């Protein structure tokens, strides 16, 4: 059974930093691209970042580029999101998402974690 | 960036009704279109990928169609457990983009 368990969320002041982790199990982690998607309270889904299966390629939405860093440790089956210079508008539930690897290109999100809430407030 | 426009933003229907949601892309995305279901307080769940392919384990009352810029998601016979918000998502171009969501309620 595929499981994605996020951790590391919490309350942080504007301008602060936080690192999210996602522990993966039930599949060969090193074979799949992984993503972060967020959802502000009461709002829709917003794409944040992606990383290729071997970690060699990354992508960031414009809204987080230069402030967030995605990484992975395939030996630990863990995905990370280092967030810095946090703003109030970064307040959201952050979901760790597995790519389905179904299509010729990444972007089919077949498993999602339960999410971890990040609140940016003074 | 590609914009995804979903309609309606909400709907109310009776159990057993046929429910249809539309999603329009701001440019041609071929069939690189997925549909997700999100129940209150839960993570989204993949229902349909590549516009019309049913994800394993998803009931057959859910279906999708379309290509290019115009797509349709259908629940053939609405069930009480289908109460949720539904999102379309394109992955033809980066960044992957979601529609604004359609909240489905029981009348």
Topology:
The complex is a heterodimer of chains A (122) and B (107).
Chain A: E1 3-7, E2 10-12, E3 18-25, E4 34-39, E5 45-51, E6 58-60, E7 68-73, E8 78-83, E9 92-99, E10 109-112, E11 116-120
Parallel strand pairs in A: 2-11
Antiparallel strand pairs in A: 1-3, 3-8, 4-5, 4-9, 5-6, 7-8, 9-10, 9-11
Chain B: E1 4-7, E2 10-13, E3 19-25, E4 33-38, E5 45-49, E6 53-54, E7 62-67, E8 70-75, E9 84-90, E10 97-98, E11 102-106
Parallel strand pairs in B: 2-11
Antiparallel strand pairs in B: 1-3, 3-8, 4-5, 4-9, 5-6, 7-8, 9-10, 9-11
Any overview of this molecule?
Chain A is mostly beta strands and 122 residues long. Chain A contains no helices and eleven strands. The model of chain A has no long low-confidence stretch (mean pLDDT 96). Chain B has 107 residues and is mostly beta strands. Chain B contains no helices and eleven strands. In chain B, strands 2, 4, 5, 6, 9, 10 and 11 form a seven-stranded mixed β-sheet that branches. A four-stranded antiparallel β-sheet of chain B has the order 1-3-8-7, with no helix packed on it. Chain B is globular, with a radius of gyration of 13 Å. The chains are: A mainly beta (122), B mainly beta (107).
Quickly describe the structure:
With 122 residues, chain A is mainly β. In chain A, 0% of the residues lie in helices and 50% in strands.
Radius of gyration of chain B: 13 Å
Q: How far apart are the first and last residues' alpha carbons of chain B, in Å?
A: 36 Å
State the shape of chain B.
globular
Order of helices and strands of chain A: EEEEEEEEEEE
The total beta strand count of chain B reads 11
What Rg of chain A is obtained from the alpha carbons, in whole angstroms?
A: 14 Å
Q: Catalogue the unreliable spans of chain B.
A: none
Low-confidence stretches of chain A: none
The total of beta strands of chain A comes to 11
What is the overall pLDDT average of chain B?
Answer: 97
Mean pLDDT of chain A: 96
Q: Major sheet of chain A, described briefly?
A: 7 strands, mixed
Helical residues, percent of chain A: under 10%
Beta fraction of chain B: over 45%
- Gross geometry of chain A: globular
What is the assembly state of the chains in this entry? Answer: heterodimer
Largest interface: A-B, 23 and 24 residues
Portion in strands of chain A: over 45%
| Main beta-sheet strand count, sense and barrel state of chain B | 7 strands, mixed
Give the helix level of chain B as a range of percent.
under 10%
